[in-house]
Design a protein that fits this description.
This protein has a six-stranded mixed sheet with strand order 1-8-3-4-2-7, sandwiched between helices. The chain has a two-stranded antiparallel ribbon with strand order 5-6. Helix 2 packs parallel to helix 6, helix 3 runs antiparallel to helix 8 and helix 11 packs antiparallel against helix 16. It starts with a strand and ends with a helix. The longest helix has 20 residues. The C terminus is likely disordered. With 356 residues, it is of the alpha/beta class. The protein is globular, with a radius of gyration of 23 Å. Strand 3 and strand 4 form a beta hairpin.
């Protein structure tokens, strides 16, 4: 495994290519407290290049990368840049707004506009409601991930309005009764440019891997070293690693996984997947703790895969078994609410359609 590591600023990273959040990654999950903490670190930072951690990527083809670790951080930065862009537009500073939009969206080699951060799980909300320069153009379903993005964007927008009254229609009128409008606007623009520059100068250790298979391995290893990933995150990583997509545009296994997870979101229980898996294991196999649950699931799945490598039946059987037996330990009313009865469990069908 070849690993390269270099110090880079956000400006460097967002200028070097386009970044896709791979199918095995978890959705955007930062809450208000985490966004507030990150914003305070950025806004109060006095250093020219404030270090915010690392990101791990693999290159698919130049200039396209997959993100293994750091997608939450980069998505939050994209949200902040979009809010700053909108602030420049409100002030009538179109050139400054278009300038910062370069780090959100720009033409590729075919001269087709392409977003720098491409997150599939939140499509089309992130792209249409936050990244799009012209603003929202459609009504999007808002699940748990979209709500987190919406809250983060609104939080940053409120912070900017609190810092710069000229951005707030009600406050700007009152302020201009007593302040020189020209000086007031110039001061606001200069301070907003300072925040923009702080965001773009944030520094990361940029770690690049050779291929996606190494990315799956590193993803799991990072969690073992204390990263905040849940058992469902790791099970998703394991299964999607084994179920390769053979269609350019349609990834059946990933779509099926997301459909299943959305049922928990719709039931207003975004954390329901974790106890779901844990109680399934206790009912079907042996006692274990939640800390070692993924290890148990992984060994069980790999044993079945090894025993039936000639077809997808082994892995498919594992999923179907998980679905059927896990449902048994959840109240019938909850299962009906999730819509998992009547043979509607999508992962089994997806797995059978995708060869290993």
């Amino acid at each position: 495994m070849k690993i390269e590591a270099n110090d880079k600023t956000i400006q460097d990273i967002f200028s070097m290519g386009y970044f896709k959040i791979p199918r095995f990654q978890r959705p955007y999950s930062r809450g208000d407290d985490e966004v507030a903490s990150f914003w305070n670190d950025v806004a109060e930072n006095k250093d020219d290049s404030y270090f915010i951690g690392s990101m791990v990527t693999y290159q698919t083809k130049k200039p396209y990368y997959g993100i293994v670790d750091g997608q939450q951080r980069l998505t939050t930065i994209t949200v902040i840049l979009a809010a700053i862009r909108n602030a420049f537009f409100k002030l009538g500073e179109n050139n400054l707004a278009i300038g910062i939009h370069y780090y959100i969206e720009r033409p590729n080699v075919d001269n087709t506009d392409e977003f720098i951060i491409n997150a599939e799980t939140s499509f089309p909300y992130l792209q249409d409601h936050i990244q799009r320069r012209e603003g929202p153009s459609m009504i999007c379903d808002v699940g748990a991930e979209e709500q987190n993005l919406k809250s983060a964007f609104e939080f940053v927008t409120r912070k900017l309005e609190a810092l710069f009254p000229a951005l707030s229609p009600t406050q700007s009128v009152q302020g201009r009764l007593f302040d020189d409008p020209i000086d007031h606007t110039i001061n606001t623009i200069n301070k907003l440019k300072e925040i923009r520059d702080k965001v773009l100068s944030l520094k990361l250790v940029f770690i690049q891997l050779d291929n996606e298979d190494d990315a799956y391995l590193i993803f799991e290893t990072l969690n073992a070293r204390g990263r905040d990933l849940t058992t469902p995150d790791l099970v998703k990583n394991l299964l999607l690693n084994k179920i390769k997509s053979h269609h350019v545009q349609y990834d059946a296994a990933k779509v099926s996984w997301n459909t299943m997870v959305k049922k928990f979101d719709d039931a207003a229980n975004s954390n329901g997947m974790e106890p779901f898996l844990y109680h399934y294991w206790l009912s079907a196999f042996e006692y274990t703790t939640d800390k070692v649950l993924f290890s148990k699931i992984k060994h069980h799945a790999m044993d079945q895969i090894t025993a039936e490598t000639s077809s997808a039946k082994g892995l498919g059987g594992f999923h179907v078994d998980v679905a059927v037996r896990a449902i048994v330990v959840i109240q019938h009313t909850s299962c009906a609410r999730y819509g998992l009865f009547n043979g509607e469990y999508p992962l089994g069908a997806a797995i059978k359609s995708e060869p290993l």
